[in-house]
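ok trying again, last paste got cut off:
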Amino acid sequence: MPHNFTAADVLGSFESALLLTLFLPIPGYVVGWMTNVFRFRARTFLMRMVFSTPIAVAIMPVFVYLAGGHPRVLWLFFAAFWAVFAALMGKQLWTARRPSLPREFWIAAAIVLGWALLAILSLADLQIGDRLYFSVSAYDHAVRSAFTAAAARAIPPANPFFAATPPVTLHYHYFWMLICSLPVSLAGLAPRHALYGGTVWAGIALLSLIVIGLEFFTGVKERLGRRALIGCGLLAVTGLDILPVLYLSHFKAPMYADPEWWNIQITSWVDGLLWAPHHIMAMLACLVGFLALRQPGISKLGRATSIGIAGLAFASAGGLSTLATFAFAVSLGFWVLVSAIRRWWDEVALILAAGALAFVFAFPYLRTVIIPGIEGAGEGGFLHLAVREFPLAMRMLVRHTTLNIPSDVANFLLLPLNYFFELGFFLLVAVLRLRDVLAKRIEVTREELAAWTMIGSSFLIGSFLRSTSLSSNDLGWRCFIQAQFLFLLWAVLLLDAWSTGRAAADTRHGRGIRKVACAMLVLGVLGTVYQVIDLRVYPPLFDRGTIAKAEKWLDEDRQAGRRTFALRSVYEALTGSLPRNAVVQYNPLTPAYIPHLLYSGHDAAIGLPGCAAGFGGDPAICRRRVDTIVPLFIHPSPADAARLDEICSEFGISILLVTDSDPAWAQPDSWVWKRAPDLANQFVRAFRFADPPR
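nice, full thing came through this time. structure:
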């Protein structure tokens, strides 16, 4: 019976999720118990387990980085965590009565299991006969799979697209990949499976953060379980993206691989978790650190412990996502200013102390990634001033009006409409909340004011700044995560009030507002459902001719399914026989690069165009590699064939892998056909050279 790659991905991802229990909730439980952060010891066992994962996400990334340079020390620490947890569980089982599990527990367990299934089935390769299709989100996961593989080999990891001796340190916010690399190091799992398992735990951490946020940011004391479940349900709600997507499809516009791409997106929760969970985890670490500083009624020792927790959390956040942490740092700067104006000197002192400690913890990482750049290594600066764009509305203005308005002015005037579509129901919640605050129906506590400070800074950054290190405005996507989470907490309170029929809510919000809110909720859920389906079915639909035009990273000859199956088959056969430090070289200029990054698990001499020198490395060295290696795949000369072994020896290449889409394949007199391959099929030929020392 032929190997089923879908089943292998599902099983491998679940195995990774189970192994990550050793590195997230278990250490988080031990840290929570030892520090008593968030009154950890006073809680029920079930609530302690809920709090443990966000605590771990806030603490463990920077811990793994600092200890990871000495693997034996790192594993000794984890062994200590596991031993302490076993002792605590033994005490729990010895002294505790059999717990009575409330209905909310079973609902939450069903939600967690449902999320795990959704995440893994959305990310796993889909095999249909001899065709294999990766998810659209593999566009990002392919690069991060390579980073995860590099992190499993060494911490700090090297740039896997620029194999060199000595290694070139990776310049990226890779702390989430460090966590995901631990199952790879422990059990030899595939890096992509570790990432998919990590996505499961990212979702669980976000679900748990809702409980912490409701209690410590909004002051919820009653019906916490019920309200938390409402929050879990709201994670399935996005903005009104479904409306412009339907509008565009009515006019036969090409189908987007992700419906978020119709605009400069404010990413939905599900889409954000499936594509780039590390940004959401950075927001989580920031909020855990911030809320740890705001615990009421704790002793001086407890306050000092909270500063330590916050310092570690802020340091972790910086390595999890530069973009999300930048947005939080700006909001924290505004909050320090507000606190100073109001003479809340205790607030100022706590934040400055935690910030200084975070810098100390993060400095070893920062000095490896924030260094004078090499000319030409990056694609641009970090950010610049620009009004948030609204491309669809601008096209409609040009097409249907004769107005000659400068683009920045038009985009500025269109900001409310832009945010209306991107935030949908949650923008309505924010407006209703602001109305109640201005009418003094809601008390402006420190937490309330802090929340509005974070929201205001998100809108300020998202409206008037954009990142330029990539062509996409990543900063404009990620700076809203903190605001989205606060909107979600307020939405929980609003829906809970409406559902319980509280008189005050009935008076403030009429029936018309409720109908509008219900319509927005339905559209938001439909938008998320469409997203999940689209990410899964887009590649096979294009392959079968249903979609007329596809992204450049899908093979135009509509053989992507068969070619991906063939590539993965060869890479799977190579994996067991190659040493971890082997260099596998494919055509770095191929547009369909995703399968190589997903399945290789090894460094490449040129892994992406320009050796991805923006992640570390000298472009001048890369140019020499390109001049020597790329012709082997494009138009090899007889001289290239004669120097093949010499070239591979010079750059430490163990495998040269050629596909039928490489120009050299179509040249019958090239080395591709004159040299006997070690592995071959209809679409792939792999040639083995000398392996490096193990």
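cool. The first helix runs from residue 5 to 20. The longest strand covers residues 653-659.
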